[in-house]
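Let's sit down with a protein and look at its sequence and fold side by side. Once you have written the record down, we can walk along the chain together.
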Amino acid sequence: MVCMNRWMSGDSGHSLIPFFDFSLNDTWMRDVMPLFGMQNGERVAYDFGFNGWGLKFASNRDNQAVRELFFERKLFDSSVRYINRLETILEGGAIDVNSRGELLTTDSVLREANRNPSYPKECQDLYFPEEMGVQRVFGLEGITPMSGDDTDGHIDTLARWVDDETIVYCATKNPMDEQFKKLKQLEMELQKLRTSEGKKYRLIPLPIPSPMEDEMGEPLPATYANFLIVNGAVLVPIYSDPKDEEALRIIQEAMPEYEVVGIECSALVQQHGSLHCITMQVPKGFINIYEDEGRNHTATKWGI
């Protein structure tokens, strides 16, 4: 996202951030962009189908975005192989994976009637074939999305890995809170999970912000679990809420090797998404490199 009048004037304030004009239906890069990985030492990008979160919204331009970036815009390095998985609907926000290849997701999204209704639970390899590096799939059952969530319960709004044995998750101690029963079910599902050695995972509850509404009075899915991990830092969405400091402290204690930075997202969440939803990290070596005025940029002349 960029301030348009500053961009048009050439004064973006960030000379190392490239931009380009790109036509999409929506802004949520997490769900539109490819999933990146390695196959036998080769860089690959999996292009899954996207249908507007189960046919809720238009998605014709979003669903063509990856192919345009690959074959027309040449955004990705020539060493990256495109893999067509368009027959399977999968959004990036629906999954979270640790370094052991253990994947968290929710059945409410993966088997939602307008996404992949014919995929049985026993056939996880239809979603995540062995070459993707996924070793175990934890599909949380009975999950109800948080109020205002259009995605049917994306895991990146609810629970996230912070290391291979630790999960932070949204919770509230207030039984009168609208989210209480939903988040208690989430907690119960997470408590069932076991490592490959049969041990329980370390579970750390995160607070939830006070209820927020859009200008029409509809609830907004504000959550601290929608953080973004980057090189050396964790960017955590905050909402000018009294719980902001507590959430930042908990995440910092859970991830002491990172610098935890709060990013004000009160305006962003008005669109029913937050920081992780609107971004997609790309591993080093996947993006073309260009030179400009003698400087080597680790991005193409186009940016998202």
Notes: Residues 23-207+218-292 form a domain with the L-arginine/glycine Amidinotransferase; Chain A fold (CATH 3.75.10.10).
